[in-house]
Amino acid sequence: MIAENAWVPLAEVARPHGVAGELRLRLFNRDSDILLELGEVLVRLPGGEEHEVSVDSARRADQAILMKLYSVDDRDRAEELRGALICGTRGDFSPLGEGEFYTCDALGAPVVFLDPAGASIELGHVRDLLSYPSVDTLIVRAADGGSDWEIPLVAAFISEADVGAPGKEGRFVVSSMEGLERPVPGKKKSAVKPPRKRHPRKAKGTDPIRGVDMDREQSGDEKTDEGTG
Fold first, then answer.
1. What distance in Å separates the CA atoms of residue 34 and residue 29, rounded to the nearest whole number?
2. Cβ contacts of 196 within 8 Å, gap of 6 or more
């Protein structure tokens, strides 16, 4: 898990709103209200420059948030921030339910396979997460330098999902390699297929992930009848 004081991008400045310096923010997690509660944010400009800025006001506007930052008092100044990232600290996030974790806490976590003899084999580290309509999937940068592993967060493959305590490293344990393949560039066929005609969404740092789906023992769209609920 990343440190409590680590800055995490929560939204992007889409455009100015009005003439008084308000910013219209495109939220990475449209269900999150974190930015409505913060008194200070980090503004990360497209060129990489960063500034901690006080928040004068923030309010909902459909699926966006309108935010007024200190010293941003006209449309021209707001226009300069177009494309900037608005960040909050990890400590600002709301607690999640048991077994759930935020995407940002999983990034960088080691992924290991426990063979039948109990030996631990490093597969790599979590590089990204993709959210399909029916399953969340770990994208794992392979330790051997080959193509990424794509591992669904389901009990058929994952026996342990631990993102660790704040500032501490967790790990994901793979219990079965059967059916897992690494995508080969130029080839479309894979042993583990996402639902047809549905495209995955790249999970953002503030997306809550429900953890290992214990109701799903199969890949793709198949479910078993013996889920624990």
1. 10
2. none
Classify burial at 114, counting beta carbons within 10 Å of its beta carbon; exposed 0-12, middle 13-18, buried 19 or more.
middle
Rounded Cα distance, 7 and 87, in Å: 6
What is the domain partition of the chain in residue ranges? Answer: 7-92, 101-209
Task: Put residue 93 in one of left, alpha, beta given phi > 0 → left and psi -120 to 50 → alpha.
Answer: beta
Q: DSSP 3-state assignment of 76? A: helix
184-221 pLDDT, tens digit per residue, is 655 554 444 443 434 455 555 666 676 665 454 433 33
Token pair in block for residue 51: 């500034």
> Was domain 7-92 assigned CATH 2.40.128.110?
no
Q: What are the DSSP E strand ranges found in the chain?
A: 7-17, 22-27, 40-44, 50-61, 64-69, 85-89, 101-102, 110-114, 120-131, 136-142, 149-152, 158-162, 171-174, 201-202, 208-209
pLDDT, tens digit, for every residue of 38-95?
999 999 999 999 999 999 999 999 899 999 999 999 999 999 999 999 999 999 998 8
The pTM is what? 0.72
From CA 18, how far away is CA 72, in angstroms rounded? 12
Which CATH superfamily does the domain covering 101-209 fall into?
Answer: PRC-barrel domain (2.30.30.240)
Element (H, E) at 105: helix 103-106
d(CA 199, CA 203): 12
Diameter of the chain measured on Cα atoms: 67
Beta bridge partners of 120: 114
